[in-house]
Amino acid sequence: MQKKHVPYGSDVSAGSYACADCGHTYSNQSKTSLPPCPNYEPSTHSLNGWNILSGRGDAVRDPYPTK
Ligand SMILES: [Zn+2]
User: How far, in Å, from the CA of 50 to the mean position of ligand 1?
Assistant: First the structure.
């Protein structure tokens, strides 16, 4: 099972991430851990994590091949 949601501060490889709560996209070029969302507010952010959009190694850019 592929991990698609990672909490703040997780160790990750470079890639693109989207806030699980507000959808803010974040492109991680060199850091090895994820920061909190810049839009973070306790009232709007309950998941406190990022969804993996693409990343080195375990990303599936196009999981559904066109027919
Ligand atoms: Zn957010």
Answer: 8
Q: Higher pLDDT residue, 64 or 19?
A: 19
Cα 65 to averaged position of ligand 1 atoms, centre (Å): 30
Q: How many A from CA of 67 to the centre of ligand 1?
A: 35
* Strand, helix or coil for residue 54: strand
Q: How far apart (Å, rounded) are the C-alpha atoms in residues 8 and 54?
A: 17
* Structure tokens, 31: 């850091």
Q: Which residue matches tokens 């850091």?
A: 31
| Residue-range domain boundaries for the chain | 5-55
- Compute CA 10 distance to the chain's CA centroid, rounded to the nearest angstrom: 10
What pLDDT digit, counting tens, does each position of 15-25 carry? 899 999 999 99
Distance CA 64, CA 12 (A): 24
